[in-house]
Queue: 2 jobs
Job 1
Amino acid sequence: MPGMGREKGRQLNEQTLSMRLERVAAHVPAGARLADIGSDHGYLPVALMRRGDITAAVAGEVADTPFRAAQRTVRDNGLQRWITVRLANGLAAIEPSDGITAISICGMGGETIRDILDSGKTRLGGQERLILQPNGGEQPLRQWLMDHHYRILSEEVLRENRFDYEIIVAERDGPVLYSPEQLYFGPLQMQARTPAFLDKWQRRLRQKQRTLNNFAKAQQAVPEATVQAIARQVWWISELLASPTVERKEQPDRL
Ligand code: SAM
């Protein structure tokens, strides 16, 4: 995955987290019992436990090699009493007796995170804070959160090693309604309009305009629905960048 393992010559580990994981760590409530799903080397729960920021953790891994890497990190830090490493698919790593209060799922596509939440939803008590760091696919992930009554409490865009990352923090809070644009951009990010957020969408706009130009030049006809979907996104992004708030406006039939 981009941005993992090394950062500008710095070796990343349980003492030196990437900026991405540091920002995730900042959203884990003090004293939490954390389940870190897809923990890989286990750096996030081990760093938080070493700092005394959480009281216990489960590190879940579906694959054998990262599972053993997480076991090693926990053992090397003498934290076996507080951090349990489990070989399990998604939220199956969580057991009711763990008393988990926060779940982090980071460094995967938004669709993968959504599928992990969806297939494990019977394991969610509804009180846990979700700290999600998708690499793309944020829209379907936000859709799942809305459909399952999770309110987005905090959102961040950050850029590290030439990749844009998003962090979405959510808690279950009854029905919540987000517009299609809010699901696409993030409801809070649309309000905050941070430089990292605006830079990301400026880059995306250029990419999507290039894609539309390539469609126009393509030898084979591109399905109309595909062209329309990208054209709609170009419209939304242009509107977002042009004005402080995205207002619903009549869309042209064809851009
Ligand atoms: N969370 C760490 C981070 O953000 O730095 C590691 C991210 S790494 C790219 C993704 C990890 O998720 C891999 O170690 C992979 O084995 C694990 N993973 C993918 N799907 C999973 C699933 N369904 N259940 C548990 N782990 C999963």
Job 2
Amino acid sequence: MKILAIESSCDETAAAVVENGRRVLSSVVASQVEEHKLYGGVVPEIASRRHCEAINGTVKKALEDASIGFDGIDAIAVTYAPGLIGALLVGVNFAKGLSMSTGLPLIPVHHLRSHIASNYIAHPELEPPFLCLVVSGGHSHIVEVKNYTEMKIVGKTRDDAAGEAFDKAARTMGMPYPGGIHLDKLAESGNPLSFRLPRPRVGGAPYDFSFSGLKTAVINLIHNASQKGSELPAADLSASFRKAVVDSLTDNFLRAAEELGYKKLVLAGGVSANSLLRRRIAEECAKRSWECYYPPLELCGDNGAMVGSQAYYEYLSGNTATTSLNARATMSIEQ
Ligand code: KG4
Ligand code: ZN
């Protein structure tokens, strides 16, 4: 089964053709990040406009790259939640139009479920059940993936998402948006023990995260130093901050795996590109003889291929939509 998949939930317009959930025949990503950089973050109104401009060409190129026409496509999939509502609406309406004009089934895909599915593309042997740490710009969840379409959130952030905390700390250090990757790179040359930063815990909810206090601690350190006319060593501060975030993610994830009895651990979402997080989870799993999976870097960020992968399994579970499908800014991964 060949699925044409469309993604427009944030600042990437993406389309892909994916066969049977695992084989990527084409994948095209048109990023708007250079424009949003000027404002230090994603401007929703600009994102919607750029999606409108890019979507036609992106979908056309995905079909061309796969050397396929609509006669070779079996279904149209689209990210419909969660995300920026104006941005999502562009992809959803485009997909609805395609479904209506071709008569092909329409498959709605949850954005975080598709991040998890990026692992199915990279690791043909990977099958649920497993425990997944889904860490992106907007979410930080520990999810029991019971089967391809049945998920249960066992831990989540009470405030900022991990990616958001990385981006805000990086921005205060003067790095361009999105700062997570820059902070990660700089941290490689710093000493993670230079600064003592908090490791927040959420009372009574051992798998939940809280990153806002950590983010504020770093921002205060920088502001206090600048008021005294001094500058903090950026590599050391980056390394200390990255370690604090990764300690928190890793501790809760491993604890959940131990207590819930999972020996197969998976990372997903933009922050799964973080080099320390990848190393730490791989090392900890190796120590315990557990299986460990994360997506290749090119599949960590938003893309259409992961949507096409998850869509296949949604279709097999009977999750299709009519053309009354609407976009939703928020929606639980469990639904
Ligand atoms: O999954 P994603 O593309 O967007 C959402 O669905 O929200 O994730 C983007 C997030 C941004 O916050 C970005 O800074 C972060 O992923 N990110 C990283 C790294 N690469 C991307 N954070 C830490 N280290 C990285 N190497
Ligand atoms: Zn994403």
